[in-house]
Amino acid sequence: MSVRKAIQDVTDRIAARSEQSRRAYLERIDNARDSGVRRATLSCGNLAHGFAACAPSDKAKLAGTTAPNLGIVTSYNDMLSAHQPYATYPDLIKAAAREIGATAQVAGGVPAMCDGVTQGQPGMDLSLFSRDVIAMATAIALSHNMFDAAVYLGICDKIVPGLLIGALTFGHLPGVFVPAGPMPSGLPNDEKARVRQLYMEGKVGRAELLEAEAKSYHSPGTCTFYGTANSNQMLMEIMGLHLPGASFVNPGTPLRDALTREATRRALSLTAGGNAYTPIGHIVDEKAIVNAMVGLHATGGSTNHTLHLVAIAAAAGLAITWEDMSDLSDAVPLLARVYPNGMADVNHFHAAGGMGFLIAQLLEGGYLHEDVKTVWGTGLSGYTVEARLIEEALEFEPSPAVSGNPKVLASVTEPFQASGGLKLLRGNLGSSVIKISAVKPEHRLVEAPARVFHSQQGLQDAFKAGELDGDVVVVVRFQGPRAVGMPELHKLTPALGVLQDRGHKVALLTDGRMSGASGKVPAAIHMTPEGADGGAISKIRDGDIIRLDAEAGILQFVGDESEFLSRSPATEDLSAEHYGMGRELFAGFRNLVSPAGSGASVFG
C-alpha cells in the first residue's frame, strides 16, 4: 500500500532532518543488543539478589541462560480509576509466562497522577514534569539487566508517554504496552458539561455538581471522554505497540484478561533469543511517528500530544516539529466524533468499529504507512481487526466494512471534515497550537480586545464580578513550563463557555495547557516563547486587539506592531507558586525544561 504524497513528504523530511541522530540512536541500541541482556554476565551475588524472592521453579529458570525473563513496569495505584485494574495484572502475566517456560518479574513501579484530581490545585504544576519522572523511573526499573523483554502497564495522560520515553532508552529490548481499558459509560458527557456550566453560573450547588461528576467517573477504568488518556491508547495501537483491538476493551472482563495473557506471550516471542527479534527502538521509527500524528488528527485527539510526540520522537533519535503536525493535519480527514469533539464516548467509538475500522479506512485512503514493524509481527494491516473471545479462545476477526454508527465513526470517503483536529497558529505573538475539531466553524475567527490574567482564579473572580460582558480574548500567561510547569487550565472552560453562549466572541490565549478536553471555545495554547521567557504574550495589555483565525492559522496583535514589540515584557513574582505540594523539588526541572515546541522536556 502506498501513502499519499503529503504524508510521504512529511515522512521524508523527518527522516532527512533526523538522519544523524537516528543513526546514532540505532547504533546505541544495536550495541546494547550485542552486549546482550545476559543474566550470565551478572556476578553470582548480582543474580542471587535478582531472584532471591522468586519461587523455586522461577529461581531455577533464572539461574540458567536460556529461559527468557519478562520485566513488568507498572503504574498501578488504587486511588485512580484507570490504574486500579492493574492490581491483578502481574499475577496474570507471571502465570502466562510460566505456561511457555519463561519467567516474569515486576521490575518497578512508576508514579501515576491524575489531572482530573489535581485540576486547579497546586499539584497540577507537577503534572507535565511527571512525564519525565516516569521516564526516569522506567529506566531505573530496567537498569538491573535482568530482562529480555518488558511489558508496560500504563494508560493515562503523562504515564504512557513517560513509559515510552523510558522504554526507548532501552530500545534494544522488545516491549508491549498493555492497556486496562475504559470504564463503562456513565452520565453522558454533554450532561456533565451542562451541570458544570450551571454551577459556574450559580444555578446549581456543589451537591448537584458532585453528583453529576460521580455519575460520570463511577468505576474502575479510564475516563470515557476522548482526552489524553484515550488518545494515548489510540496512539499505542496505531504505532503497533499494543495488540490489535486492545485499546478500548473494558476492564475486569474475560476478553481484557485474554488480551493481557496474549500480550505476555507476544513480548516473550520477540526477544533476541528467538527468531522474531523486534526491539521497540526499531518499531518506533519515522513511519510509526507519522502514523501516530495521522491518528491524532483523524480522531481529533489531545493537544497534549503536540508536546509528548515531540519528546517521544526525540527519545528515538527523531526530530519532529509543530509544522510537521500542522501540515499533516491539513492533509488528514477527521473521522471520529468523540466528546469533546462530539457527544459519544470511547465505548461508543469502540462499538462503532473502533481502531480496526479507523485503521482500515486510513490505510484505504493512503494516509498511513502499512509497511511498519509491530509487536504483532505484521504490518499495520494486521491491525484492521477486532479482538473477540470465542469459546474462551482469543480470536481476531476482520473489522466491519461499514461503521456501526456514522455519527461517531465516519468512512474516509465521507469524513466529518476534510482536515484534522489540530492546527498550528503563527504570527507576531509567536507560535501556538489549537484543537479546532470541537470548535464550530462560526467560532473559529475571533478578533477582540484582550483581558490579561496571571492565574485561573483571576479570570474566575472577574467573571463572577460581572466584568466580562463582551467580546474578549482572555490571556492567561506565566503558565508555561519554565514559569510553573505548564499546568492544565480547565477551570477556565465553564466561564468561557458561558460567555460564548451569551453570544460573545470569545477565545483563550495562554502559555499553559488545555489538553484533550479542549472544547467549544477556541483556545490558542502552548504559546511559545512563553511569558517567563519574555515572549510576546508578556507584552499584551488589557484592551489590545488580538486576532485568532483558526482556519488560516493566524494569531497576532492587531495595531502598531513596532510599538507593541518595543514594549518591555511584564514580569510576575512566581516564588509563591514554586513551593508547597512538592513544587520546590522541581526547581531544577523548571530551569532545564525546553520550550513547548521542543516537547517541554528536561532531557534536552
Can you give me a brief rundown of this structure?
The chain is an alpha/beta fold and about 600 residues long. It has 23 helices and 14 strands. Strand 9 (about 445-455), helix 19 and strand 10 (about 470-475) form a beta-alpha-beta unit.
3D architecture notes:
- This protein folds into 2 domains: 5-184 and 219-398, no CATH class; 423-577, Glucose Oxidase, domain 1, CATH 3.50.30.
- It has helices at residues 5-17, 19-35, 44-51, 56-63, 89-99, 115-118, 127-142, 159-169, 189-200, 206-216, 228-238, 254-269, 280-283, 286-299, 305-315, 322-331, 346-351, 354-364, 456-464, 481-484, 493-501, 561-566, 587-592; strands at residues 69-74, 103-109, 149-153, 175-178, 385-390, 393-398, 422-427, 430-435, 445-453, 472-476, 506-510, 523-528, 545-549, 554-558.
- Helix 8 links the parallel strand 3 and strand 4 (175-178).
- The longest helix has 17 residues, at 19-35.
- It starts with a helix and ends in a 12-residue tail after the last helix.
- The model has no long low-confidence stretch (mean pLDDT 93).
- Strands 7-8-12-11-10-9-13-14 form an 8-stranded mixed β-sheet.
- The chain is an alpha/beta fold.
- The protein has 23 helices and 14 strands.
- Helices cover 38% and strands 13% of the residues.
- Its EC number is 4.2.1.12.
- Pfam families: ILV_EDD_C, ILVD_EDD_N.
- [4Fe-4S] cluster binds at residues 156, 223.
